[in-house]
Specification:
The protein is α/β, with parallel strands linked by helices. The chain contains 15 helices and five strands. The chain has a five-stranded parallel β-sheet, sandwiched between helices.
């Protein structure tokens, strides 16, 4: 996965390629940004560029033996430190809660050696926010006195959860969310239908990882449920239907399902608000149902949309306190 194959964050891509070309990459980097924007892939691409047999203009070829070995995690000088257990005897869905001190101590020891088969040893710590405090402290000596032939790359979506002494010893590269057009273009290259790619790209909110995780059939089912609810709120306000919706959402759904439905409702309200402000239909997240949204928007006011959005936010704030979800929905739908 050379830099040339990666999506988005062109500024960081150019910076890293120039640094590789000029031999100014340093010994410690912190790649920080939202989940799913490609930080880990950038780290692997950097490891390839530093060791590629045919590096050109700071980028790896992606085809040589070295590049292929790094991508398969088989290269002796590139090590990935994960909290995910890779032991084939353990279930694939097993994931350790933290990155432990044994892992970072082993990494720090290996960082002192010269490369075995490449030009640069690279140690990538993915999800670095899960470093135990002791594990983080064990990295300090390596970060303070890094061997010139080793590079440590920490990848995280929560840079400020790391101890300050680690952040201060690393050059931080801040990754931005991907644009909807970048995600859509990539999904089209993956042979996704145009309408499906467009919807996924807008729902992903800047995260390619999220775009691949979304089940559109499931999302459309939730969307229909929540849009019918808004239609009832905006027209008949039939108490029986609203009570039934409150029971379904608040009692029958598990907490995760409840939150997903509220997230879906929030996206619909954003689209309706956009339409009330005379926004273009093709700029909606749910542009595939623009006509139906337009009809709903005609029956509600901006004040209603704002009130519902505020009440949803209040429910999300109250969820950690184990609020009664059914009563919370009744308060929103019936007394609102």
């Amino acid at each position: 996965m050379p830099f040339s194959t990666l999506i988005g964050n062109e500024r960081i891509k150019r910076l890293l390629q120039r640094a590789v070309s000029e031999g100014r990459i340093g010994q410690s980097l912190l790649m920080a940004g939202p989940c799913g924007v490609g930080k880990y892939h950038f780290a692997v691409a950097l490891a390839q560029a530093l060791n590629c047999d045919h590096v050109k203009q700071g980028d790896a070829c992606g085809e040589c033996v070295t590049c292929r070995k790094i991508e398969r995690r088989e290269h002796g000088d590139v090590r990935i430190v994960l909290r995910e257990c890779k032991d084939p005897t353990i279930k694939k869905d097993y994931k350790s809660q933290f990155i432990k001190i044994e892992q970072t101590r082993s990494m720090s020891e290996q960082a002192q050696f010269r490369p075995y088969e490449g030009r640069r040893r690279v140690f990538i710590i993915d999800e670095a926010e899960y470093l135990l405090h002791q594990a983080a402290n064990s990295l300090l000596k390596t970060l303070e006195e890094p061997p010139p032939t080793s590079l440590v790359v920490l990848v995280t979506s929560k840079p400020y959860s790391l101890i300050e002494t680690i952040r201060s010893r690393c050059l931080m590269l801040s990754f931005a969310p991907l644009s909807a057009s970048e995600i859509e273009e990539h999904l089209r290259k993956e042979n996704r239908p145009m309408e499906e790619a467009r919807l996924l790209a807008r729902l992903a909110r800047g995260s390619m990882g999220r775009a691949f995780e979304i089940d559109l059939n499931e999302y459309r089912g939730m969307r229909d449920t929540m849009l019918e609810l808004v239609e009832t709120l905006g027209s008949t306000r039939e108490i029986t239907k609203l009570l039934g919706a409150s029971e379904y959402l608040g009692r029958r759904l598990e907490k995760d399902g409840f939150e997903e439905h509220l997230d879906t409702l929030t996206v619909l309200l954003e689209d309706l608000f956009h339409l009330k402000l005379n926004g273009a239909e093709d700029s909606l997240t749910n542009a595939d149902i623009a006509e139906r949204l337009r009809r709903v928007a005609e029956n509600i006011t901006i004040e209603q949309i704002t009130e519902w959005a505020d009440r949803i936010e209040q429910i999300f704030v109250a969820l950690p306190r184990n609020v009664n979800r059914q009563l919370a929905m009744e308060a929103m739908l019936i007394t609102g």
